[in-house]
Every structure is written in C-alpha cells, then in structure tokens.
Amino acid sequence: MKFSSILSLTSLASAAPYFHSNEGSPDALSVKLEMVGNSDVKASITNNGNAKLRLLRTGTILGNTPVEKVQVTQNDQELAFGGVHLTIAYDMLENGAFQDIDAGQTAEVTFDVAQIRDLSRGGKFDISATGSIPFANEGSNTLAGAVSYASNRIQADVDGQKASLSRLVLDQKRTVVKPDCTGSNYTIVRAALRNCANLAQAATQAATFGPDARMQQFYQATDKTTRGIVAGVFEKVKNECLSFDGGVSSLYCSDRFNSCAEGVLAYTVAQASYMVYCNLYLTRLPLNSQSCYGQSQSNTIVHEVTHLSQVKGTNDYGGYGISSVQNLTAAQNINHADTYALFAQSTFAGC
C-alpha cells in the first residue's frame, strides 16, 4: 500500500442492522436478460410479490454505476471484471438511492457489458446475473433485508472490434493523479489502516480457531479447507493494511472517476489496484463500530481490500449487509466482500 503520493488500500462496507423478511424470498424477484445490441444487455426486473418493493439502486443491477451486474464467460472461463466495487453507507441513504417496483410490475435497465469486460476477442459469450438486492420498507430509507435473484442465461455473438470501442479504461489517469490524502484525511485513513490490521488479525484467529457457529453463519461451512481459505484472506488483508508505504494497492481521497454517488463511502477498481475514499467516508463514519454489523472506517477498508486480485478478488453480487450475506450460496460467500467485512466486524464486536 502506497501512502505518500498515493495512499494505498481500500474500503469496506459493513452494514447497519439488517432484518430478515419474507420479501427476501428468492421467488420475490425475477430477472430476465436479453441482448439488444452488439454488447448491450437489457435486464427486466420483476416484482413477483404481493407488495411494493423498495429496492436499492446504488451499487446494484438497477443503478448506473459500472458495477458488476452480470457474470460473463467464454469457453467456460469467466472474464475479468474491470469496473468499480462500491461501498454503500446503509444508514445514510436518501430517496434517490432507491427504486420502487409495484407488485407485478417490471423495471428495465440497459447496460453495455463491453464497458467493463474485455470482449475484443469477439465470438460467443454466455451472460447471466445472480446476486441479491437490499430493500427498505415502503416509505423508508432504512434497509430492512435483501432479496435474491438468479436470471436466465443468454448467449451473445459479439463483434469484438465494435465491443473494444465501448471499453472503459478506468486506470488511464493513474500516472497523472496528484497526492490528495493529506492533512486531516491522511490522519483519518492512517488510523483506519491500523485498525483494519487489528480487525483482520482477530478475524484470522477466529477463522482458524473460532467457533463453528460463526463460520457456519458467514460461510456455511466449518471444514478445515474453508477455514484455511478464510484465514489466508484475512492474513493478506492484515499485511496490506500494515503496508503504509508499500503493498500492492494505492489509495486516494478524491473522486477520480465520479463514482462517489449518493450514499457511496468508497470504491475500488481492482484491475488498477487502487481504492478511492469518498467525502462521506472521511466525514461521517466512525473509526470503529461496537455493533455486530455496524459500518466503520476500519471495516470499510477490510471490505475493499478483499476486492484486490492479489488478496482474493471478491465480488459484491449486488448485495450488501448481513441479509445479503445470508441470502448467498456458500460458493458466493467465500468470494463476497461483505461476508469478509461482516465476519471481521462481528468478531471485533464479540457477537
């Protein structure tokens, strides 16, 4: 982690308290994908329940930010994701962060898959979407749970040359960015990095020697192999958080790619190994949280560091918070940033 001209590291997004709800049933939401251009995909999100759903737009398949909305494979090999991973402030959300879908109604969004994945080789690609979307109760901006979804799988026959013209190059400004984590921002992030290392160290011990109940809650497994994977990730997180002037990542305190949208604390571009801390993170979050799933500056770093390919290369699956964690499969949990963040936070809080 480089801390001088560019700080280094990442951010997390633990969560404010979440609650289960019948609306979180996998049948409550369906997602249908279809190709509408060379590399454009239309997603139709249908509320199959009996009541209105107030779904989080920011950082999910419903939003405009280049987050991971679909999974793309070619010849059974998943293509690397080149967009941003957001960290959402769950207790600071406003109306613009949500989209209401009435019972039986459908919302449609269209996005260009080639913007954040390299489709320049052209040919046939398989595209699908799985994950979960946090929701609030009607008339509220407080997240109350998460609803899971799994789309159909579609095949796209892509013109590689056309697709290459759509690609977002999110690291193109890397060499011209000036130092910006200075003064009070430097002090804030430096303290959070130290505490990130402490959280990760405790989580390493919990993953290695801790009770089966905690491993089962977050990773749906208690075997030695799973414990070893989880402990290894936290050990890498700890080392990165301690690498104030080295490490594999760089950290910034200014919005390099205009992704500090409403309710966003931080974001990571894993392909460029850098993280950006937004003003909301620097001015509104506490250094630590004593609640089981509370957000803090320190556990936000844990979340984002796991996104780095050199650490784990985790995904968000469009889901944040404990309800989303508990709606994922075991295979997703082991590769989900918030699962690691909340495991570390709950360990720290003694839950």
From TrEMBL:
Binds 1 zinc ion per subunit. Keywords: Cleavage on pair of basic residues, Hydrolase, Metal-binding, Metalloprotease, Protease, Secreted, Signal, Zinc, Zymogen. Its cofactor is Zn(2+). The keyword Coiled coil does not apply. Its EC number is 3.4.24.39. It catalyses: Preferential cleavage of bonds with hydrophobic residues in P1'. Also 3-Asn-|-Gln-4 and 8-Gly-|-Ser-9 bonds in insulin B chain. Secreted metalloproteinase that allows assimilation of proteinaceous substrates. Shows high activities on basic nuclear substrates such as histone and protamine. This is Neutral protease 2. The lineage of its organism: Eukaryota, Fungi, Dikarya, Ascomycota, Pezizomycotina.
